[in-house]
Amino acid sequence: MPEPAADLPLAVPTHQRLLELSPAKDTEAEELRQNLSALVALDRVLWLGGDEGRSLYRLDRLGDHHYGNLSAVKLRDFGLAGGKDDGESDLEGLARDGDRLWMVGSHSLRRRKYDATAGPLKLHDRQSRNAHVLGCLRLAFDAAEGRDALTQALASDRRIAPFLAIPSKDNGLDIEGIAARGERVLVGLRGPVLRGIALVLDLRLGGLDGDGPTLSLEAHRCRYLSLSGLAVRDLAVVPGSDDVLVLAGPTMDLAGPCYLHRWRNAPGPQGSPPKDGVTLETTEPLLWIRDGRPGRPGQGSDKPEGLDVQRRGDQLLAWVAYDDPVAARIGAKGTSTRLDGYGLPD
């Protein structure tokens, strides 16, 4: 398989955003800073998701590239999560489409990290029911949801079904990104990666315009992307187009390079998939944003996890949020972190 973007220089951010999560040391804010996994800006509000807890978070815009006043939205209040016994929500993707704020959980099975003092390595940990969420909130906070319908649909897909019983860090099912346009929703997978081919689930949802709170999964198919062995870490619709920006990075728990790709006319027509073979779709590599070296233990690793794209005048900016940030990214006082902004060719 060819090496896309092999000749791209390592990109340097052109902008940064300061996120003041708390003016003082705060346990919840510190956990969010260490586990940022999704972001999306709507008007003067920046929404954040993390892979811990059962909340969605919002920050108010305080100035140009400056956000603060962190507040939490409990997903349980809108039927999008159960209680503590149902595990973490593990939000891995946020997307905006009109007045809808979409979110998706990892839908993954977890395996505990190896600990030599804890006895034999457990094959499977208990699955988090709260991580099985695909839904949206209108800005008026009417809830819509489609929990577990996606997992049931994937169980009927002969290529993906075998990976449902495998933990996410072992190349099992692991959702990490979402992009939405009307009734069409694209869901990117960190795993599985099949012989170096990345997967995106193309969904058509019903019930968006009804009065009831429940979505229905009307149709789905699997799309196959050539990302040179990398997986999807997040997705974002390019404003004013039908293109989608893809944050591509390593699968499972590997350290590796990260790139930004542009997927032209990503929604396209939702036709019938081939009965036997697959159609491999190509993307346009734009930027190389992480060199791939692993982080040093205890010093952070700056893993790109969240992606948002905005248009400022005639320039496109891609904003990237980092899990496990390095010391240079976090503030010395209170609890804060910084996003990187990358200028993109239009």
Kindly describe this structure.
The protein is mainly beta. 4% of the residues lie in helices and 45% in strands. It contains 2 helices and 21 strands. The strands form 4 sheets. An 8-stranded mixed β-sheet has the order 2-3-4-5-1-21-20-19. A 5-stranded mixed β-sheet has the order 10-11-12-13-17. It has a 4-stranded antiparallel β-sheet with strand order 6-7-8-9, with no helix packed on it. The protein is globular. The model has no long low-confidence stretch (mean pLDDT 87).
A few lines on this structure:
The chain has 346 residues and is mainly beta. The protein has two helices and 21 strands. Strands 2-3-4-5-1-21-20-19 form an eight-stranded mixed beta sheet. A five-stranded mixed beta sheet has the order 10-11-12-13-17.
